[in-house]
Structure formats: C-alpha cells, structure tokens
Amino acid sequence: MKAIERFALVQHHGPDENWPEKNPVIIDGRASSLAISGFNLLRQYETAAGYLLVTDFDCPYEEAVCFVLVSQDLETVLSERTICQMYSSFWLDEVVWLDEANFYATLDGLAEYRFYFTIRRFGIPWIYPRLGLACRRLNVNNGLWRRDIR
How far is residue 109's CA from residue 70's CA, in Å, rounded to a whole number? Predict the structure, then answer.
C-alpha cells in the first residue's frame, strides 16, 4: 500500500441537488470516463489489487464515507462500500493500514467503532465483494473488540 496524490474529482457548482450521483475522476490532471460516488476525495492509495479511493458527499446533515476499489487499468470500479445512516453525520477520522490488503477506518464521534476492510483477490458481487467490510465495537467492560452486526 502506498499513499498517492494522482487523482481528483470534478468539482460542481450550483445547488447540490443538480449534481450527478457518480462523480467523474480526474487522473493525472486529465478527465476520464471513470465515475465514482462522492464529491470530495479524502484519501487515495495504490495497492497490489488496484487503487483505493476514499470519498465523502460534503453534506453536513447526511454525510457518508465511500471506499471505492478501482482496477489497476483505471477502467472499472471493482467494489464499493459506503458507511452511512440517514440523518447522521460520518466524518472520516483516520485510515490505519494493517498490511497490504487489510486496514481499518475510524469515524469522528464513533470512537468505540472500527470499520475493518479486506481487499480480496476475487469477489462475487453482493455475496463476497472484493472489498470486504466488518464493523467491530469496543466492549468498555472488558476492553475487547467484538464484531457488531447491526
């Protein structure tokens, strides 16, 4: 995994209800046909499986954080996972890489939660996605992290 600064997202003007659902990606300063969810690019990484782009929607009342795995040829979105909840705000606090294929993300205001991701070599959409996600919650009584299935 290597943090990079290769990508940007097209910026929109005017009321956000007129903005597209998927936002075009600028690669090395040039427009591309690749479009992903989100309006702000928060983090970007190069991995052995492709590129991981982390975005949000820049909305103070219904914020969501998207993790998008893009193929190495920059043509295809391999997998996308979104952390959100209606009428709640989720701001990315940090991304901590455990190894080349595993990392967790923490969100501001949710210190007792960690969202663990695994970048897989293959996937089956909706059943076994390329970007696996598991939520773990800290048990304050014993100090252990347990899987949270809510």
Answer: 29
